[in-house]
Amino acid sequence: MKVFVTRQIPESGIKLMKDAGFDVEVSPQDGVIPRDLLLQKVKGVDAILSILTDKMDTELMDSAGPQLKVIANYAVGYDNINLQDAAAHNVILTNTPGVLTESVAEHAIALMFALAHRVVESDQFMRDGKYVGWGPMLLLGNDILGKTIGLVGMGRIGANVAKRMCDGFGVKILYYDRARSEEIEKQYKMEFVDLETLLKNSDFVSIHLPMTPETKHIIGAPQLAMMKKTAYLINTARGPIIDEAALVEALKNGIIRGAALDVYEQEPKMAEGLAQMPNTVLTPHTASATEETRGAMSELAAKNIIEVLNGRPPITPITPK
Ligand code: GLV
Ligand code: GLV
């Protein structure tokens, strides 16, 4: 059985697949594999271990051939995969939910605190040699204590942010999702509201939705205008959920106070003007990038492939909601 891995990933998963007796080839490319090379490398393989920048569609599945049984995405999000195309080709799809939940939630919380306490701006200020002595009005930020946190999306990651934040930080939590989750709502002392109410009342709005046609630009100029002028927006989900150009305008014009982004509409690019805004914290899609989590993702993707190639059901199949 042949497996193609589209990018260098932590070795632990590769080892599991080799130990299972598979013939595993890892992309020779340093960086995103070019499309032509990808189409060529997948020819005749039984499984593909893909990353979120690889588009998995009919062209690719045809190029692989009818023996292709499984595509294991090294990510929880799977907006890079065409689900209809996979169904038409009888290809089983898997992702890596669960193992990265805590890490992404921690990153969202880290961004929240970095914004409120102006950690990045203050760091730059020190490095620029601008600190000439203590000042009562120097770089004033905001406390998290007493604030309202609005979580948009209550899947595993949204719920984990709520779990970590509901005790000890003295915040109130609002959440919005397509469906209400009364059990975790009670457990984490949250209030279920509609999106407009959440945007109008939150001091920190954190996005935890999957990328789908329905969630694209769910935060655009009208939604930004509903937010408090003192509010901060955090996105660790997918870039196109926010209209990034509209966000830059909102930051420039004081419509909201600040934003922290880990994901962008057209990665690796950023919307024009974003990098020049001081009231932003920007990370390069690294919310799940911890040694612990990336190793666990590698192993889970590999185990999914091992299960399917041995004729068993995958551990974490993609089940579109
Ligand atoms: C990363 O963005 C993921 O979906 O796991
Ligand atoms: C992803 O794991 C989510 O459900 O938020």
TrEMBL record:
GO terms, molecular function? glyoxylate reductase (NADPH) activity; hydroxypyruvate reductase [NAD(P)H] activity; NAD binding
**Any keyword Oxidoreductase?**
yes
Q: Which GO terms describe its cellular component?
A: cytosol
Superkingdom is Bacteria
Q: Where is the D-isomer specific 2-hydroxyacid dehydrogenase catalytic domain?
A: 3-317
Entries under InterPro entries matching the protein: D-isomer_2-hydroxyacid_DH (IPR050223), D-isomer_2_OHA_DH_cat_dom (IPR006139), D-isomer_DH_CS (IPR029753), D-isomer_DH_NAD-bd (IPR006140), NAD(P)-bd_dom_sf (IPR036291)
**Keywords, sorted A to Z:** NAD, Oxidoreductase
Q: Name one Pfam family in it.
A: 2-Hacid_dh
Q: Which residues form the D-isomer specific 2-hydroxyacid dehydrogenase NAD-binding domain?
A: 109-287
Family statement drawn from the similarity comment of this UniProt entry? Belongs to the D-isomer specific 2-hydroxyacid dehydrogenase family.
Q: Give the protein's recorded name.
A: D-glycerate dehydrogenase
Organism of origin = Candidatus Portnoybacteria bacterium RBG_19FT_COMBO_36_7
Lineage of this protein's species? Bacteria, Candidatus Portnoyibacteriota
